[in-house]
Amino acid sequence: MQTLTVDLGDRSYPIHIGTGLLDRADLIVPHLAQPRVAVVTNTTVAPLYLERLTDTLTAAGVAVHPIVLPDGEAYKNWETLNLIFDALLTWRAERKTTLIALGGGVVGDMTGFAAACYQRGMPFIQIPTTLLSQVDSSVGGKTGINHPLGKNMVGAFYQPKVVLADTDTLKTLPPRELSAGLAEIIKYGLIWDVDFLAWLEGHMDKLRALDADAIAYAILRSCEIKAQVVGEDEREGGIRAILNLGHTFGHAIETGMGYGKWLHGEAVGAGMVLAAQTSERLGWITAADVARARALIQAAGLPDVAPDLGLATWLDYMGHDKKVESGKLRFVLLKKLGEAVITGDVPRDVLTDVLATPH
Ligand code: NAD
Ligand code: GLY
User: Fold this and answer.
1) CA-to-CA distance for 178 and 75, rounded, in angstroms?
2) Of all atoms in ligand 2, which is nearest to the CA of residue 226?
3) Going by CA atoms, what residue is nearest to atom 32 of ligand 1?
4) Which architecture, in CATH terms, is 2-172?
5) Which of 41, 42, 52, 132 to mutate to test the pocket of ligand 1 (most atoms within 8 A of CB)?
């Protein structure tokens, strides 16, 4: 097991990465304020891992109450969130009861938001079971739900007490979901670390085959980069926005196509190609750089061409982006491979060219 820390003063917390972590009560129990937890999961993950986690905790004297939600991005909404509150109130969960998220980013984002709201804040723990959630969504405290008009539009910054990324759980993940996680891993190379980008180019086959050493290193390096960025700018006053490379375009794809049609990571993959093309149009990176980014996204098994939403729809959905300031769209683009910038100065004709017929 490897451990790193998200450094946020008195809200700092460890991320443990390794195998067999679902059996490790010793990594969870010290973070509980009382020996009671509610485990939020979904109908897909529950049959795979809920019993194992429950056995681990009950053997350590912890009372466990399961909350099993419907599965899917389309359920990341108020109605499903309310099911968590219904269950917590019915079970008489208290403010010191801990909420545990067992699942992918959808379960993690909703559980974290429920924890931020229930009795104005109860502790929560992330046990991410998808590659995407192990490298991104479980770390950094962004929680929330979707609105029909925009992705992740309602939520809170609320940090977990500990993150447990058990890499064994990835063995049951469908290949399409694995690829979606690889999109966020590629993102870290593009925005922050060109050496990691080169490492990914050399190890993509191993990653897709779930080679244990390669996966563990990719998760560790991704979490290191995310922890560093979040440690510098927890509430996205500035640099944290670079973690959204490809997301302005990607969120428009997700909302425009209907939640769940394109996986979040798939939309981010195609969105990163659009961001790279926009960066090229601004003269910051070369056509060869764009081709290199595209090749890696393809090698990860991701779509590299966005759907044609129509310019008006693109602009409409991108206008709901959380980076919009005073009504002006802001984009995360690439100054070079391994270095991102946040800019509000993308001329309309450049955007029109890139989005008119995505290619
Ligand atoms: P997801 O949560 O929908 O999980 C993908 C699918 O895999 C689901 O069907 C799920 O039930 C299933 N699953 C989960 N673990 C499994 C396992 N071990 N074996 C088999 N199946 C398993 O999707 P995701 O890609 O994990 O997360 C995407 C969500 O994360 C989006 O809503 C996105 O907005 C959010 N996100 C949040 C942040 C953040 O900082 N909070 C960052 C990135 C993404
Ligand atoms: N996934 C973007 C962030 O956590 O800031």
Assistant:
1) 21
2) 4
3) 106
4) 3-Layer(aba) Sandwich (3.40)
5) 132
- pLDDT tens digits, one per residue of 46-70: 999 999 999 999 999 999 999 999 9
Predicted confidence (pLDDT) per residue in 272-288, tens digit? 999 999 999 999 999 99
Say if CB 102 and CB 53 are below 8 A apart.
yes
Q: Which of 258, 224, 252, 229 is nearest to 242 (CA)?
A: 229
CA of 248 to the centre of ligand 1 (A): 19
The amino acid present at 70, given as its one-letter code, is: P
Ligand nearest to the CA of 174: 1
Report the CATH architecture of 175-356.
Up-down Bundle (1.20)
Instruction: Give the containing element (helix H, strand E) for 54.
Output: helix 51-59
Residue nearest to atom 20 of ligand 1 (CA): 173
Report the predicted TM-score, pTM, of the whole model to 2 decimal places. Answer: 0.97
C-alpha 62 – ligand 2 centre gap (Å):
32
Atom of ligand 2 nearest to the CA of 184: 1
Atom in ligand 2 nearest the alpha carbon of residue 236 = 5
> With contact defined as beta carbons under 8 Å apart, do 141 and 112 qualify?
yes
**CB 151 less than 6 A from any atom of ligand 2:** no
Q: Using the mean position of ligand 1's atoms as its centre, give its distance from the Cα of residue 136 in Å.
A: 10
Backbone angles phi, psi at 274, to 5 degrees: -60, -40
Tokens standing for residue 230? 């979040």
pLDDT of res. 327: 80
What pLDDT, on the 0 to 100 scale, is given for residue 15? Answer: 98
Q: Match 């309602």 to its residue by tokens.
A: 154
Q: Dump pLDDT digits (tens) for 302-343.
A: 999 999 999 999 999 998 888 888 888 899 999 999 999 999
Whether pLDDT at 300 is above 90? yes
Q: In what order do the strands lie in the sheet with 63-69?
A: 2-6, 13-18, 163-166, 124-128, 98-103, 36-42, 63-69
Mean pLDDT of 122-146: 98
Cβ of 243 closer than 6 Å to ligand 2, yes or no, is yes
Q: Which two tokens stand for residue 287?
A: 């056509």
Q: Which residues are known catalytic residues?
A: 120, 142, 184, 226, 236, 240, 244, 247, 251, 264
Q: Give domain limits for the chain.
A: 2-172, 175-356
